[in-house]
Amino acid sequence: MKTIRQHLGWKLFISYVIIIVVGVVSLAITAELHTPTAISRHMAEMVPMMGGSMGMMADLTESFTQTVNEVLLVAASLAFVAAVLVSTFVTRRIVKPVQEMKTASQRIADGRYEERVQVNGEDELAELGRSFNRMAHELAQTEERRRQLIGDVAHELRTPLSSIKSVMEGLQDGVLDSEPETFANVEREVSRLQRLVRDLEELSRAEAGQIQLEKELVNPKELVETAVARLHPQFADKQVSLETHYSPDQPTITADPAMMTQVLLNLLGNALQYTPPGGQVTVQCSVSSKQLPVNNEHYLPNTDHCLLITVTDTGIGLTAEQLPHIFERFYRVDKSRSRAGGGSGIGLTISKHLVEAHNGRLIATSPGLNQGSTFTIILPVA
Ligand SMILES: Nc1ncnc2c1ncn2[C@@H]1O[C@H](COP(=O)(O)OP(=O)(O)OP(=O)(O)O)[C@@H](O)[C@H]1O
Ligand SMILES: [Mg+2]
Predict the structure, then answer these.
(1) Atom number in ligand 1 closest to CA 349
(2) Residue to mutate (ligand 1; options 272, 274, 281; most atoms within 8 A of CB)
(3) In terms of C-beta density within 10 A (0-12 exposed, 13-18 middle, 19 or more buried), how is residue 214 classed?
(4) What's the CA gap between 81 and 118, in Å, rounded?
């Protein structure tokens, strides 16, 4: 009984057999009930004409019933053979792909993400097979990203840790003197580690969609002014000029001011980092109607107007090959250059998540290498 319950093939076969049995039994009963009456009626009329007796009538009735029973037996046997053949065929068509999917899913559960099932035809089973393969592909990609993330994090931790270790060893061996400069180096590396950990925490929250926004009505000009004021000393130090422009009709937006300030600080920080001394960074705040300047892909639904905050620099720019990757976590155009500056390639990833949590978009454009770049925050207007 257990095997029958476990196998779709057996269940199909039994359902066919039940149909055959019901058909045969009902035919037999109907024949049994109706034949004598029908035959008697005809015989009663025919026998006197043919000059036969009542015994002949009984004989005829019995041989007719026997013939009907034989025919039923042959038909039932043929139907039984057909049931065996059809259920075997249907089982192959239905059960085999299902079993293949079961095996594949077990392999995937064991970590073999390259597993796929063969898809034939267009029916629901084929559709299921295709979605199964899509799911396997997504799982493989997630796994790949997870592996990459661990690798990246380990890589990011290695540099500051080995630098701290070598300073410590130098101090222990007496190769290094315990001067303020030595401790300042260690402190710098520790700060870098702290920043990395903080960024990672934020990144994981952002990627899990767990950013808690404390939205309020804010004036975008105030946001920009706050960020600009905070970075002004660094711009002055590097001799990069920083300008702001506001269109006259500044709208208010519903946003979390702390989060939006962080995005602006990230963008301004990048603009400063990737612009050589003597360069210029411009922040512009304007309102756009539904049709956005960059391309329609960045069109925001559910809003008539958008606020655009652009941060344009005259720095090292980005090539068309680099542009699509800069929002990926840990992506840095030039690993060595950015590392010296302390960048870990997470800033833009977090910024993009933060802007998207506000139902906005963050996009980057650049005419090419050494021709500067522009980052645009697009936000729906309240
Ligand atoms: N304004 C810019 N001009 C040129 N390249 C840029 C600019 N902003 C970002 N990039 C490129 O995009 C990469 C990713 O930027 P992102 O801000 O995510 O990381 P980062 O600045 O390297 O590190 P951090 O996580 O500290 O911000 C940078 O490493 C840089 O190569
Ligand atoms: Mg950055």
Answers:
(1) 18
(2) 274
(3) exposed
(4) 30
Q: Give the distance (Å) from ligand 1 centre to CA of residue 185.
A: 24
Ligand 1 pocket by Cβ (under 6 Å) = 199, 266, 270-271, 274, 313, 315-318, 326, 331-333, 338, 343-349, 373
Statement: the pTM of the whole predicted model exceeds 0.85: no
pLDDT tens by residue, 294-342:
555 566 767 778 899 999 999 999 999 999 999 988 888 877 645 555 5
Q: Which CATH code, of 3.30.70.250, 3.30.565.10, 3.40.50.720, 3.40.50.450, is assigned to 216-380?
A: 3.30.565.10
3-class state of residue 280 by DSSP: strand
The architecture of the domain spanning 124-207 is: Orthogonal Bundle (1.10)
What pLDDT is recorded for position 290? 61
Nearest CA to 267 out of 324, 205, 309, 225 is that of 309
Task: Kindly report, residue by residue over 252-308, the tens digit of the pLDDT.
Answer: 999 999 999 999 999 999 999 999 999 999 999 999 876 555 555 566 767 778 899
Task: List the domain boundaries for the chain.
Answer: 2-109, 124-207, 216-380
- Distance from Cα 183 to the centre of ligand 1, integer Å: 28
Strand partners, 10: none
Ligand 1 atom showing the smallest separation from residue 313 Cα? 1
Alpha-carbon distance of 43 to 144, in angstroms, equals 86
